[in-house]
Amino acid sequence: MKKRIVSYLSGSLLFFCLTSPVKAESILEKIQRTGIVRVAIREDAAPFGYLASEGDLQGYCLDFFALLEKQLVKNLERNTLSIKLFKSTANNRFSLVSNNIVDLECGSNTIRDNTPEGVSFSTAFFTTGTQFLVNKKNRDRFNLDRDLDEIRLGVIKNTTTEEFIIERYPSAIIQSFSGVTARTRGIQAVSQGKIDAMISDGILLRAEAQKQGLSASDYPLIPKTPLTCDRYGMIVKAEDPSWQNFVNSVVQSPEVTALSKAWFGNLLEYNSIASNVCSKN
């Protein structure tokens, strides 16, 4: 009789284990256990993340990570936390999160409907859109409502901007730039007269042009109202609502509003104009 009871209980436990898998550890639980927050930042997306002239990593995202750490210490009631920093690129930013290498990636990540598998986005923290950086001497050559026949346009390879420009201006001469220095080299090509315009998100064009010492008056962005609506969000793990909600709470905090003013300054004008475009879509 005892053997039958033992056999029955063992079978019941096996059945329970098969039908009730152990709940996966959330990111907040993991941070509480390990005391480590793993984050990623790009080196080619000024002012969000970039290498300064002396080679030091700088950008809005570094200061955002500091605020994130401060709020986590308070929320988790810990004395300290450690930030582990990873380098991301346009190609690996989603896989870093989906493969659990980092908990969050901060950068110029356009919130999209066709979200890559395994990841999600935070609420938007900046809004921009597609614009052309041109030499003011060539401004009159551009009528963006018509086909830009024989106009030399620079784009970053394998981006939604490249697809958009090729489809919208099929008669233009497209030059694609690739790698982490793509936007830098594209803007240099404009200043050297090798191409007529470099096309990307307005905020990224203006910030990189400033790094190169190119003034907004000599190298304006056209059109003033962006051609597209692009909202940036942090990349976070999908199906982890507690972590996503926490990140959203930091993004929407008064401290981040002050951080944006400090980092973007007069560039917030581009955010405001683009936000008006997005509100109409």
UniProtKB/TrEMBL annotation:
CDD domains (UniProt xref): PBP2_GltI_DEBP
One Pfam family named in its UniProt record: SBP_bac_3
Listed name of the protein: Amino acid ABC transporter substrate-binding protein
Region forming the signal peptide: 1-24
Positions of the Solute-binding protein family 3/N-terminal domain: 36-267
SMART domains attached to this UniProt entry: PBPb (SM00062)
Entry annotated with the keyword Heme: no
